[in-house]
Amino acid sequence: MAIHYHCRHCGVHMGSLDTKAVEANRLGFDHLTDEDRSEMIQYHQTGDIEVKSICEDCQESLSKNPVYYENDYLIH
Known about the structure:
The protein has a 4-stranded mixed beta sheet with strand order 2-1-4-3. The protein is built from 3 helices and 4 strands, in the order ββααββα. By secondary structure, it is an alpha+beta fold.
């Protein structure tokens, strides 16, 4: 099982964790609402998990240009 982190705005691969067993509370998933969890986390048939987060570049762009929050995808 692997956990892959991708930016929800630009799609860049931010990193992966290769592990056999990780508790959701150690990753902070237990702090998410059900709605946030369903939007941010996808479980694949292979056992891998994909987590949509935000990369530093997109966070900086959004901080400087709040109007960008209206866009589903950012290119930087």
